[in-house]
Amino acid sequence: DALRQAEIKRTKTVCTYCGVGCSFEIWTRDRHILKVQPVAEAPANGISTCVKGKFGWDFVNSPQRLTTPLIRENGRFRPASWDEALDRVAQGLRDVARQHGGDAIGFIGSSKASNEEAYLTQKIARLIFGTNNVDNSSRYCQNPATEGLFRTVGYGGDAGTIRDLQKTELIITVGSNLAENHPVIASHIKQSHKHRGQKLLVVDPRKHEMAERADQFLRIKPGTDMVWASAMSKYMFDHGYADEAFLAQRVNQVEAYRASLAPFTLEFASEITGLSVEELTSAAEMIGQAGSVCLLWAMGITQHSHGADASTALSNLLLVTGNYGRPGTGGYPMRGHNNVQGASDFGCLSNVYPGYEKVTDAAIREKWARAWGVTPEELSDQAGADNFMMVQHAHEGKLRAMYITGEETAFSDADSTKVHEAFSRLDFMVVQDIFMSRTAEFADVVLPGCPSVEKEGTFVNTERRIQHFSPAMNPLGDSRPDWWIFTELAARLGHHWNYPNPGAIMAEAAGIAEIFAGVSYERLVGWQSQIWPVLPDGESTPLLYTEKFKFPDGKARLYPLEWQRPMEEADAEYDLMLDNGRMLEHFQSTNQTGQGGRMMSLSPNWFVEISPQLAQARDLKEGEWVELKSRRGTVEVPVVVTDRVAGNVLFIPIHHGKPGVNGLTGEHHDPDVNTPAYKEIAVSMTKLARR
Ligand code: SF4
User: Fold this and answer.
1) Which residue's alpha carbon is at the smallest distance from atom 2 of ligand 1?
2) Is the minimum distance from the CB of 531 to ligand 1 under 6 angstroms?
């Protein structure tokens, strides 16, 4: 027994399923994952994990893993050596750049890969090909939230830590199904609500678990949150709840903003949101009387045609009530993927270098050029194409090559029919992934990457916390860490970076990007972590805005807004609105949770939720099948009858199906940030004959 114990390896790792960033020990014997062991020292989660973190690791040993590079030949993939595959990738990208310029290539980095790998993705795009065409899946989720924070307070991250949430008097969640998408944060809030008298206000079209637990639940009409938040701000001013001292000392544009609120009466808000004046008044009183407020929001806000405005309105409300800069206050956009925060922080965005340093700022560009050993003229001074634009440009023939790492764009991007057409029109496409994804089926070369338990690196969680993880096992077959692949590819393109390990990549990034100045692997040993901005001496900033907001004069900005209707609404033909989102047991396209393992067995089926009233009106019983039809396409799915939804709103999970929910979504997007309006789908529903 002692011998068997000696064979067990315990490795600290960080969960790859959501932005909470739970860390724990993973116990392995060779490639066998024996168990996940939470530890009290884990900074974000302590001894808590959810079902995915605990049991969702079967995919690591799935027989479906890619274990060798693949090259397309005569319409079929054949195995290839790394040398041949990387030569082919270098040649393919070089050919496109020579013929059409570097801006004809687009790079989508992975929100599941490490910070160091995100850094190298954007470095290849910017330094080697001179293009800012680089992005990550935050375009599909949290960019509107980041934009809202940039407009009002300055940093694109949560104002405080996850543990700070326990210090607030009132938690507000808006458009966030916390119990399924960020389960460990939800359990912290449940504890504070139950045992410490914390109040909970939930605003959502769907009565999910947190809504059931809330002191007040506002079942709001989808896409109208901006009106709700603005009406709350007006109420604060009108009823003496605005923090006038805070506004006078720390906030600009107060009067202009106050004047812009004139239309947002409770009566107007009631008409738009579907909430009664009494419900709105009660919520406003709850907010106004709270000594401290933390406001959490997620895809229910951002995945709309005006998600940036709705996010801005929420941050405005926090400013009006003085809820920034003190423990237990602030805005918390909930990051979805495990490293969507880090992929953005480390520069996989089309307009900023790592650390959110603008590509259009000449001094910044000069700094990065000097650090990378080139002239500023060799780096593009124009913001590049983001994910949305890349697909449009590929469809139009302007973008000729794409390099996609760890993103299931063919399934997860809106309007998947158009995405598939766009991919088919590319001259050259590379996909780097751990599985033969639906996106990889369009590629010319497929490169097998590694999951986090087979490599070293760091992730940033939703609270801006940088955490290190170590390899628990060797790469499977001939798969390789993404940082190794990027380094080898760069060498073939004439850039010999020779990073010996990911720590060297982080050291380079920290030496250039101001917000990572004091980040180092030495300071991330064991259960240590750092929260950016990190000062040169290594000191973290767990709570933002204690003295200054991130604007030149240190003051925040209230940002006036006008109400704009959703781009797609129900009408006579498409009379229902299809809400959509994640389930606890699954992650996005199910490429990880759907590999025949435990998670799939817990939740194998697709369904659409309809209300009891709608079921009665349409003569539908639980389990019967319907066709959902949007202006783009159709899907067939069985119904679940539940009061989680009401009226003409349906809910469908995003994980299953062929084509899946994105056979129904369209081109509508937020013009400020190009995030698809995933949650604005008008559909018709027809009962199908028995299947
Ligand atoms: Fe992983 Fe998120 Fe669950 Fe934590 S809460 S174990 S990070 S999926």
Assistant:
1) 18
2) no
CB neighbour burial string for 334-349, b if at least 16 within 10 angstroms, e if fewer: bbbbbbbbbbbbbbbb
| 181-195, 230-244, 251-265, 497-511: least confident range | 181-195
Q: Which of 14, 52, 190, 586 to mutate to test the pocket of ligand 1 (most atoms within 8 A of CB)?
A: 52
Nearest atom (ligand 1) to Cα of 51: 3
The residue whose CA has the least distance to atom 1 of ligand 1 is 53
Cite the DSSP H helix spans in 361-438.
Answer: 362-372, 387-396, 409-412, 416-424
pLDDT of residue 597: 63
Third-level CATH fold of 2-61: N-terminal domain of TfIIb (2.20.25)
Tell which residue, 602, 468, 611, has the closest CA to residue 530.
Answer: 468
Measuring CA to CA, which residue among 95, 237, 228 is closest to residue 174? 228
Domain spanning 70-140+339-531, CATH architecture = 3-Layer(aba) Sandwich (3.40)
Q: Is the pLDDT of residue 596 over 60?
A: no
Query: Which atom of ligand 1 is least distant from the CA of 16?
Result: 1
Alpha carbon of 363 to ligand 1 centroid (Å):
40
Nearest CA to ligand 1 atom 6: 53
Contact 67, 78 (CB under 8 A): no
The CATH classification number of 576-687 equals 2.40.40.20
Dump pLDDT digits (tens) for 114-148: 999 999 999 999 999 999 999 998 888 788 999 99
Domain layout of the chain by residue ranges: 2-61, 70-140+339-531, 143-333, 576-687
Length of the chain: 691
Enumerate the β-bridge partners of residue 168.
Answer: none
pLDDT in tens, 119-128: 999 999 999 9
For domain 143-333, the CATH class is alpha beta
| CA atoms of 432 and 428, how far apart (whole Å) | 14
Q: Going by CA atoms, what residue is nearest to atom 4 of ligand 1?
A: 22
ipTM of the complex: 0.99
Q: Is the pLDDT of residue 511 over 70?
A: yes
Encoded tokens for 340: 């969507």
